[in-house]
């Protein structure tokens, strides 16, 4: 057994250790992504692997398998087991020393430093890679935006998140502030007096007491298992932190020692589930503190208390801990002493008590005979006591300041990120009231756009009626031009000019940083949400909600990036309208480049608005301008399949699309904008010929379609027209249902209209279980709802199309073939009770099966004729 290095304060590991990183990267096939990092777009491409539930057969498959499962929010994403296709006669005989080797790996796997057994070898193709090594290698090979996506999806799976990423090859460790920026937490806040309510905040901005768990030399107790037990109610075990018992045969860590992970406990407002009454953060340092002194020093400066697990305290350990004298942090020891070492431990502990300001209650002993449940309760009581008393409470952002002082690299400190942040702050500093800002600074999308949209609708109705041109239509056309000229006389406000400058940056990375900063900056200045009663926490999930009540059709829109892009669209729309009418020379255009700027954002994963949520209108020139730019940019790879998702707000359609394709649609009523948005998904070049398309344009109807037949006929007609537009553009339509019997009447109306034209997209009805948070397993397809009699509102929608008398069940509709399995039952999203619930495995697996079916239908040509972009532009104009 090798002792602790004498150079414990040096951040530079030995040369032999540095070479292990390159060996691990080569083993996993990631060495090519060191110069040019793996991007989010690379990870989200659709390939042949997207259509099969494959198991990795070699270490090089593991990163892609992890990313695919993480995108689907699969709770088993950390499993690195490989299935080898090896003939039985080619398999090696079991070694006589197999048991001895297993014991060695057992001891080295989690809380025993890998360098203790220096003769351990890198994983071979027939033994799993340690999941923490896989995570570190993948993060080191990814750009900041893919890192952020990985961490966000890990948080939704309730995995512990990386906070400090070790990099032994390049002699520095990275504090992952940027990677954690996208994580938003919701919890039940109960003030000492008054009524409690839900609170939502960024994970990097909210302060909480923090407790670090570290190992000194050797410990018979597993930190990760202890942490999981502390975080879990007795009847709901959680595996936030990976540990050695979660995978049989996993190799010891090779490059992940020095990794610091973070996880939070968040109260739900239910006494039977809440281990602590307030949010509490827990940190876990992988490896021995002597070998990773820099990380340990950071933990002592950011934590409310540090728990040190060890079997014995040596003289060298005493010297290390003595250097912490004067620290304001509280220290606790968890001992499991070897026989004969008891007196040595007591001697050093007695010396440390005055140095670390401890007393005898700060020393806990856990041996094999100790009652585990009672020990966990004791640790919880210490945590609760420290949290109740005056103690250090830092946000992750404040922890990053401490990391900088110690010489750690912070991922947010690159010039591009900081310039983008400063530009965002200049814009948001002037926003005192969101409604007033929209009214005064984003003027074009207010009354002028609403009036112009109304005139355009009246013109369209007159043209659709087939009336000959008359004085009334001429007056409408003249009014429209007057409104557009009024818009065109305006100049972009200062905030919009700054926004345009931000997305015009020649640096692609700075442009992406700016957009993310704008999203978060605008969210911070937005008005706070109203508080909710405790039971509604089952329905909420920050940035990944979608399971909420949908009784209200319209809700206040929070100020977002889409409003700045909408304003750009109105400048372009007004100018194009005047040019088309001959009222403005084409050479005098000022905003012709706007679609190109917006297209860059679409190609980098930002949803763009297709139907304006405030006026429920389509800015035709703007949308066609975007599609023309897309056609030019994609050149030969312009074959499209359009996939749309329709349904009432709160039926989980946005969450479904995000989980299926890794998209960024806003989720949940009140969580985002009302309009319909589109995102582009790229098909890998080596798969596009087989699939029959180069890209999939995904459209989310947002909150445009109501769940019930509205009293106002005009409102229903408008919803039906919008549903007809979206489905008419689509090759594939997913209809998300909250009730098994009722299709939203506007959607049914659209089906009946399109049936007359012969253009009915391939469709899938998806019933999502919004009530049962712990569905036992998936039932991928269920035909019963399709065959049941339709509900009253569905019959009413059919009767408005004058087809109600002959429709007794939905199966009577010509487009519904009950023998073709078009109806899906998706289990509940959550396994457990939010905010500590993870996504259920049944939900993840059912979504994957639905995705596989949709892609199979596209490949087999069941989704109608695929379009090129030129055809799509013409279809937009006609519809």
From TrEMBL:
Subcellular location: Cytoplasm; Nucleus
Pfam family, one: URGCP_GTPase
Residue intervals of the VLIG-type G domain: 637-877
Keywords: Cytoplasm, GTP-binding, Nucleotide-binding, Nucleus
Gene3D superfamilies assigned: P-loop containing nucleotide triphosphate hydrolases
Protein origin, superkingdom: Eukaryota
Annotated region (Disordered), positions in chain: 776-802
Stated family: Belongs to the TRAFAC class dynamin-like GTPase superfamily. Very large inducible GTPase (VLIG) family.
Protein's name according to its UniProt entry: Upregulator of cell proliferation
Species of the source: Felis catus (Cat)
